[in-house]
Amino acid sequence: MEITYYGHSCFLVKGGGKDLLFDPYVTPNELASHIDVDAIPADNIFCSHAHFDHVTDVERIANRTGARVFGCWELYQWFNSKGLKNTFPINPGGKFNFDFGTVKAVIAQHSASLPDGSYGGVASGFVFATNDGNFYYSGDTALTLDMQLIPRFTKVDFAVFPIGDGLTMGVEEAIEAAKMVGVTKVMGVHYDTFGFIVIDKEKAVKDFEKAGIKLFLPAIGETFTI
Prior knowledge:
Layout: E1 2-5, E2 11-15, E3 18-22, E4 44-46, H1 52-55, H2 58-65, E5 68-71, H3 73-81, E6 87-89, E7 95-98, E8 101-107, E9 124-130, E10 133-137, H4 150-153, E11 158-162, H5 171-181, E12 185-189, H6 201-210, E13 214-216, E14 223-225
Parallel strand pairs: 3-4, 4-5, 5-6, 10-11, 11-12, 12-13
Antiparallel strand pairs: 1-2, 1-14, 2-3, 7-8, 8-9, 9-10
Pfam families: Lactamase_B_3
Organism: Flavobacterium agri
Keywords: Hydrolase
């Protein structure tokens, strides 16, 4: 599958003939200052949770592209209050079929509040099954044994995990997550954006390699195939 990385936890997957965009946080990210947010395509936007570093550019991109926006019930209501018309609620445990394939929301162990500090619902991850391949985006999460349930329902070809530590999993736990999910290809996200989640990328790649797992750490703006 073809993936474009836009920094932090924002990435685009071309799956099922559609552009699937995740957690748009581009304009405030100094590391992504060379990215034109108004050139990012999207047919569907998935928000793993309500924190500012995952929802900042949702409205701007959705209003331009007409993309359908997915999030937990509280995010769904919040986006509706912002005037977005093409929204869809999905909570952990929920599964729906769309033109791009199937998406199932799963639990993520993480806090979640809206940018104004109000309650933002629960954090979640997403599991996709498409004609182009299957994948799991965990969203911001700690390592949890719930990840063992993923391959019981969907055999995924790769996973996207946070590896910055501090607020989410670090490298060591992400390796264990990959083993639970049953993947040998992982894209790392949620690192380097802020001072407290800067990582040693070379060491991270080597640590994954020792476990028999390929870690992809694309440059911001890079498009690659996994």
